[in-house]
Amino acid sequence: MKSLPERQLEFLQLLKKQPRWITGPLHMRGINDLLAYLVMDLGGAVSVVHFSLEEENQLTMVAKKVDALSFEERMHEQEKIFFHLMLIALCEAVTVRVDHFLLQAFQGECTYSVLEDSTRGELTTKFKFRRDILGEYELDFASLSYGAQQLAYLTPGLKVLMEQGYGERQRNVYCYPKGVLDFMDYELNLKGSFYQYTFSRQYVEEVVDGYHYRIGICFGSTGQFRTFTNYRELKRGGAIEEGVLKGLMMGIQEVARREDIEIIIGKSLLLKRLYCIAAVAGKEFSFIEREAPDHVLDMPELEEVVSRVVYEAVLELEDSESVGMVKLFKRQV
User: Source organism's superkingdom (predicted)?
Assistant: First the structure.
């Protein structure tokens, strides 16, 4: 196994060659991704994560109900906390405190110590990114809040707080016990009469090969399509949207065939009336290890899974709802 300094050196060399790989064109995209991955490093039992933006671009993350013993063991094994190691490589200074365990790092040099008092399952991570790697940047509360909200969508039941602790103090709290369905209900209620004619409301949730799919769809007077994922490939590739549209068209065509209704349907017609929020989350990341095939999500396969899930959901709708959906696209004589 490579030592911690060797792994950090690899990170730094890669980042210096491709700095936008982590920061993105506006810096914040990659930083938000990394914050989400830090939470994934903590394991599945975490119930609350509190981020605080302080002066001079310092961030603090406090997580509740962390399995401290397991995290300490993984911290010493190094590769089990991959994204915390990346954080150490990216930052001027990092402090990680969980129960009796304390890790301190300054420009990649780490020291470990054991303290007398305990934090009782609470983990605190403080860090500040290095400008010699990321260049000039300014952490933005609104952009960080968007990342916190996306993390909450992808982790139903996790309560995520984003706070600005200086200047104009601000605080946002995100928690969606039912994931995207909670958000869809909120959006529909917020728009009120704008969506008063919504129907064929359906929520699909399925786990396939370790990937958790959550898709909420309905039809109304106008359309909107939003996707959330912890995979950078999905953000670029559009496989979720393609899969949803393909599954809907197949389902609507099948219902039309059964009911002997002649229809005209296409992606553009669907998008005019379709309100959809979809999320895909999983445990394997292609964030860093691009060359490892096990960490790369295959787009055609993903599209097929999504289309199948949505197709089956359409056929499971009550007859009145499925026929009502089909009549949206009925050929006018």
Answer: Bacteria
